[in-house]
């Protein structure tokens, strides 16, 4: 059954992109048809702007992008003008980093749409990330520095988000249990080994609704597709929620419809089935 959809927000990793981080021809064609039909189509990702594939940033008609789990809404057609942002205060970020440093972690900090990691940790990325395609993506999109703490002291600014990649999943769970009790941050995890933290109240769902308000699009006219924990609020918030077949069980439970996997181009299939005339 066709639905009255005016906006579609799509997670990237595990959702729009294949395991190899590719955007396949059928998916490109369906996105193009939706845009030609007047639908606002955008990436809604945990990635910083510098991590969004250039193919999507340059995709004809794809004007907006939600980055850093909803911390920023960006208008690409206006020289990447920031339409909205809510950043993690520096003091809170440092408190989180102090917790993460107690464990075997790779730390990432995000300033102004770019992720930073120490060169030492980036050189042993596979210690923390078993997926070679994810290793390749992170290696290509992060800026390495000699001293991450020195960078933080130099910038003295709030952050888009902070992220930790854990070697030991039990240690990750210990930290997750602790910081989920903090009442002034938003905690999510898109991967089995990571924890990512934003300012309180930040999530992809609130960003999608905010953009909808700017464009005169109602909640019930917004569709979103996702697979991971950082997509959960988005799927619970929008009018029509699509989970990938490869999604976490909690994400599937929140969905109105379960489509194929990301490697089966499930996003495109859902759009063709429910949106295209």
Automatic annotation (TrEMBL):
This is Haloacid dehalogenase-like hydrolase. GO terms for molecular function: magnesium ion binding; phosphatase activity. GO terms for cellular component: cytosol. InterPro entries: Cof, HAD-like_sf, HAD-SF_hydro_IIB, HAD_sf. It comes from the Bacteria. It holds the Pfam family Hydrolase_3.
């Amino acid at each position: 059954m066709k639905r009255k959809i005016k906006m579609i927000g799509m997670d990237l990793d595990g959702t729009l992109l294949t395991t190899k981080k590719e955007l396949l021809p059928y998916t490109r064609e369906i996105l193009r048809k939706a845009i030609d039909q007047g639908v606002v189509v955008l990436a809604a990702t945990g990635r910083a702007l510098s991590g969004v594939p250039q193919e999507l940033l340059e995709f004809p008609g794809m004007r907006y992008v939600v980055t850093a789990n909803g911390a920023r809404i960006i208008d690409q057609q206006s020289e990447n003008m920031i339409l909205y942002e809510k950043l993690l205060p520096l003091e809170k970020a440092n408190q989180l980093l102090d917790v993460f440093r107690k464990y075997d972690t790779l730390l990432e900090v995000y300033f102004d749409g770019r992720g930073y990691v120490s060169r030492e940790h980036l050189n042993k990325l596979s210690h923390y990330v078993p997926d070679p395609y994810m290793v390749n993506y992170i290696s290509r999109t992060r800026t390495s520095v000699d001293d991450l703490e020195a960078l933080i002291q130099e910038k003295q600014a709030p952050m888009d988000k902070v992220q930790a990649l854990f070697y030991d999943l039990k240690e990750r769970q210990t930290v997750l249990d602790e910081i989920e009790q903090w009442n002034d941050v938003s905690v999510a995890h898109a991967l089995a080994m990571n924890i990512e933290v934003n300012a309180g109240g930040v999530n992809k769902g609130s960003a999608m609704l905010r953009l909808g308000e700017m464009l005169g699009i109602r909640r019930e006219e917004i569709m979103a597709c996702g697979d991971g924990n950082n997509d959960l609020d988005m799927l619970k918030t929008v009018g029509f929620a699509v989970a990938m077949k490869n999604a976490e069980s909690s994400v599937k439970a929140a969905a109105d419809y379960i489509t194929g996997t990301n490697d089966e181009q499930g996003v495109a299939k859902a759009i063709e089935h429910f949106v295209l005339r």
